[in-house]
Amino acid sequence: MKTQKIPEATITRLSVYSRFLSVVEASGINSISSGEIAEGTGGTPAQVRKDLAYFGDFGTRGVGYNVPSLNEAIKEILGVDKPWRMVLVGAGNLGSALAHYSGFRNRGFEIMAAFDNDIRKVGMTLSGLPILPIGDMAAYIAEHDIQIAIITVPGPAAQDIGDELADTGISGILNFSPTTLSMPDRVSVRNIDLTVNLEVLSFIITNRDFLAGGDLVE
Amino acid sequence: MKTQKIPEATITRLSVYSRFLSVVEASGINSISSGEIAEGTGGTPAQVRKDLAYFGDFGTRGVGYNVPSLNEAIKEILGVDKPWRMVLVGAGNLGSALAHYSGFRNRGFEIMAAFDNDIRKVGMTLSGLPILPIGDMAAYIAEHDIQIAIITVPGPAAQDIGDELADTGISGILNFSPTTLSMPDRVSVRNIDLTVNLEVLSFIITNRDFLAGGDLVE
Question: Which residues bind DNA (chains A, B) (predicted)?
Answer without folding.
Answer: 16-55
